[in-house]
Design a protein that fits this description.
homodimer, alpha/beta
Chain lengths: 314, 314
């Protein structure tokens, strides 16, 4: 059993979804997915309780609600639309696992989602704006009477293409932005990630995390850069949810330790990377829902030996 | 002035060349290049003297020979073919700087290169087989009366495509192989670098370094993995010679410290990465030929802060 600090102040907005996936290793029908799902499961290894704002349809299965509750998710903020269907996404990954084709997207209840933050959630100290329409991310932030200690926003190229102005507006209220390397290039118009990061950090976020998949992640803050490796894996089985899992491990660690210094964010990036390295080992949430302390510690030890070096100057 | 150990036992075989380069930032006519050139310049920051086996034509300019000599290169093993021309390569880099088109290759004196290791070089303790025809790499190794303490071989996809059998034969006598990620996939037939590395380490090399350009490098040995970052740069001006510079910094550091443990190889990988990060800042050898102690130490400090993290277990 993990030793957890009881902090009630992690609030996550994000999708709860069903995904149908195809990878070079196999395929699935409708399995549990969605950014808020992965974030909550990943953060559950740090925080006793996390508050979720999301929306599902009547088809969302009770065992999936039960799983999230058993992991400390508070679902008061999850709207269940009686005559609606849960957001559905279907995709197929290429051999490199870094690129994928979307086969089907059914927004369903997400199309009219009007997020409502319950009163009990409004003292949130840590706010995770999971990958979603920027205007919805903004609405959640706007409902909080006082600004959280830390606001983390995850987004993707789709919103840059389709809701650029809303995204730029939302970024103004954000402390940490997480995107991948191609998205950082798209957002900044700079090929160099260092130049791009500098530009993006003038748009609102004081910290930027650039996720590079199998190549790890870069954390930027002012003139500081931290490079976190990804764990080299024998097999990446299914990358779905890796970014959300990263975000959940990252903000969960920060919420637990309640320390938002650059030094502690580096540790949080390693935690996020470690959690993401589990997610990709099986389909969907299978792996991230069942971890033990021993497995997590063994993985963190792997990260330690992966980066440990005693650099000698001239 | 660097404090250097006087070890006469680093031997490098490789090309000495003229390159004409085009990058998104500019172009050059015939500038000094070649694997042995970059390796010797990079290693010169560790070793007083390095022995070179190579070949050039009568067109190879005296100032370039003088530059190499001034950096401690012994050129007794460099054949100067009076009626021949120096190897010439011309290439154009794409915007991502990871891919390039070869515009022209003139093998010239390289076509009939018959490497001869001078007597004075034959006690080599550290042998760097720079990127070249595998059969030539093999001939150099075969001329040494006793096996060096460490043999490092660098190669590329071109030799895998055209001289596979010779390459496989040469690999049997090698301790450390350095290739890039695509080449590791091609050589092993495995997409996963972890699986690929395991397979390649059954072919001869006990250590494998996979170079990933802007994403750093991975060092494999038995079940151990070390992940070295690349320094995130504002601008990669010209990647030519980065891999050779890496190799020179790597083997130079090992020759200086005379320690081939995994722990020390990790430090050597950081040294190689640091030296390569200089090379790409200007065209050709311009940057690597002019470094000061202060610049190198400052760069190593950047690597330190880039990777330093105090990972906390659960």
């Amino acid at each position: 059993m993990l030793h957890k600090f009881y902090i009630m102040s992690l609030l996550t907005v994000g999708t709860m979804a069903y995904d149908a996936l195809e990878t070079p290793f196999g395929k699935t029908d409708r399995i549990l997915g969605g950014a808020a799902t992965y974030i909550a499961l990943s953060a559950s290894y740090h925080v006793e309780k996390s508050n979720i704002v999301s929306v599902v349809g009547a088809d969302f299965e009770q065992p999936h609600l039960d799983l999230l509750k058993s992991k400390g998710a508070d679902l008061e903020g999850v709207q269940i639309i009686k005559d609606g269907k849960t957001f559905f996404w279907s995709g197929k990954y290429h051999l490199d696992m870094n690129t994928r084709d979307t086969l089907d997207t059914q927004l369903n209840v997400l199309a009219d989602f009007n997020p409502i933050v319950p009163e009990a959630y409004k003292d949130a100290k840590y706010l995770m704006l999971g990958n979603l329409m920027p205007s919805i991310q903004q609405q959640v932030l706007d409902q909080l009477p006082q600004r959280p200690k830390l606001v983390v926003l995850d987004t993707m190229n789709f919103w840059m293409d389709n809701c650029w102005d809303d995204l730029v507006e939302a970024l103004k209220g954000v402390d940490v932005l997480t995107i991948n390397d191609e998205e950082a290039r798209q957002m900044s118009g700079e090929y160099s990630l260092v130049k791009g990061a500098k530009k993006i950090m003038t748009m609102g976020p004081k910290f930027l995390i650039i996720k590079k998949g199998e190549h790890g992640a870069l954390l930027f803050h002012e003139d500081q850069i931290f490079s976190a490796p990804a764990l080299p894996l024998e097999e990446v089985f299914d990358p779905t949810g890796a970014g959300d899992t990263f975000a959940g491990g990252f903000i969960g660690y920060l919420a637990k330790t309640d320390d938002i210094s650059f030094e502690n964010m580096k540790r949080a990036v390693i935690w996020g990377s470690a959690m993401a390295s589990f997610t990709v080992e099986k389909f969907g949430t299978e792996r991230i829902a069942e971890l033990t302390n021993e497995e997590i510690n063994a993985r963190l030890e792997e990260f330690k030996s992966l980066v440990s070096v005693d650099i000698q100057l001239v």
